[in-house]
Amino acid sequence: MEQHDFDLFVIGGGSGGVRAARMAAQRGARVALAEVLGTDGLGGTCVNVGCIPKKLYSYAAHYAEAFEEAAGFGWDTTGGTLDWARLKQRRAAEITRLNGIYGNLLAGSGVTRIDGFARLTGAHSVSVATLQADGSATHREFTAAHILIATGGTPFVPHFQGREHVITSNEIFDLDPFPQRLAVVGGGYIACEFASIFNGLGAKVTQLYRGEQVLRGFDDEIRHFVAGEMVKHGVDLRLGAGVVAIRKEADGLHLALEDGQTLVTDAVLYATGRVPLVKDLGLDAVGVAQGAQGEVVVDEHYRTSVPHIFAVGDVTNRVQLTPVALGEAMVVVDQLLGAAPGKAQRSMSYEYIPTAVFTHPSIGTVGLSEQAARERYGDVTIFRSEFKALRHTLSGSTERTLMKLVVDTATDRVVGLHMVGAEAGEIVQGFAVAMKAGATKAVFDSTIGIHPTAAEEFVTMREPLRR
Ligand code: FAD
Description:
FAD/NAD(P)-binding domain
C-alpha cells in the first residue's frame, strides 16, 4: 500500500464517508476524506439537510399540539406564536456544532481532510478541485490503494414550466419568510414529513400527490390510516393530483393543476424523489458501472466494477437511510482491514431494517407489509389494534393509534410490525431486535407489557383479525 499517498481515499463527508474514514484511520490506515462543502458539509445530508434538522423541526411542530391539548390537563394557556427566525437560527447553531464534532472526530482519528470536489482520474487516483477566495480553483492529485465513493444523493425535480419557482428539502429549512401557505408535491416519506411539520408550525399545507395513496411500499393499511390522521390534523391532502405549470403572480405562486384547478400558495416544496449524486465524478472515464438512475453499481461486498473502488450509501441507490450507510461503511472497512481486535467481521443484512416516518402522528415499521408477507409466505395471520391513546382521553385530540402484527402462520414468526402513533420510532426499535432474533407470536404473547403504555398493545393482541 505504501506506493500510494493513502491506503484509503473517501469521497464525501456524509454518514457513510465519515464513518468509513474514521474507522479505517483508527485501525492504523492512512486515510484521506474529501468533502466539497468543507467543514460545513461534514455529516452530509443527514446532519445538514436531512434527519437531524427535520427531527428538530418536527419537535418544534409538536409544540402546537401540546399547547392546544394542555387545557384538557388543567393548564391555563393561550398557546404560543412561532418565531420562525429564532427556530432557524437555533437549528443552524446546532448543525454548526455537529459539523464541528464531525471535524474533531476525523482529526482525532488521524484522517487527512481535503476540502474540495473530488473526481476519479484512475483506478487508484483522485483529483480534488478546491475553490479559492478569488473564485479560481486549485487542482491536486492523490493516489490511494482503495477509493470509497460516498457522495450520497440529491433531490430530483421533474422538468415543467415554472420549475424555477420551487424549492426542495435542501432549501426548506432556511425558507424566508415563513410560508403561510405551502404546497408540498410528492407522496414519499419526505413529502409527508414536511407536510406534517409545516402544518404543525402553522402553515396552511396542501399536499399534492399523483398516486392513489401516499407512502408507496409501506403496509397499505398503515398508508391509509396515516393519510387519514394527517388530514384530521389539517393537511389538505389531494390524491390523484398533479402540477402542470407554476406561474408567479403578485398574490403568490399559481399552480395549474391537472384537473384544471388553480392553487395559490406562498412556496412550493418538491419532494419527488432523490437521485444519486454522481455528476462530474469521473465514473465513465474510469469505467465504474452505473445503473439506470446513475447509481454506482456494487456487488455484495460494495465493490464497484473497478477493483479497489468501493461505494456505500445513497449513491448506490439502495436503502437510503443513515444507519444503513453507516453499516455498509463499517463492512467495507472490515473487508479492507480485517475485523476490529476482538470482534467478528461485520456483515450487513437488509432484512428487518426498522424505520420511522416523522409524520404527525408518526409511523414506525419493521419487516414486511401485509401484502409483501402474503406474497412471500402465502398464509399469514394479521393482528390489529386501533385505539385512542390514554393521553387523548383528556387532551381533546381525536388522534388514533394503529398497531399491526403480520405473522407467518406456518412458523408463528412475527415478520411484520407496524404502528402509527406517538413515538412510533422509539417503540419499534426494540421490537426490531426481537424480530431479528426470530421472535414468534408466542414469544410476544408471553412477554409482559409495560402498563400503561401504547407499546404494551404489541404484546397483548390475542385475537387475529384475519388469516
Ligand atoms: P450523504 O450523507 O448525502 O453525504 C454525501 C456527502 O458527499 C455530502 O456531504 C456531499 O457534499 C459530499 N459530496 C458529494 N459529491 C462530492 C464530491 N464529488 N467530492 C467531495 N464531496 C462530495 N435517513 C434516516 O435514516 N432517517 C431519517 O429520518 C432521514 N431523514 C431524511 C430527511 C431528508 C429531508 C433527507 C433528504 C434524507 C433523510 N434521510 C434519513 C436519509 C439520509 O440522510 C441519507 O440516507 C444519508 O445521509 C446517506 O448518507 P451518505 O453517506 O450516503 O450520503
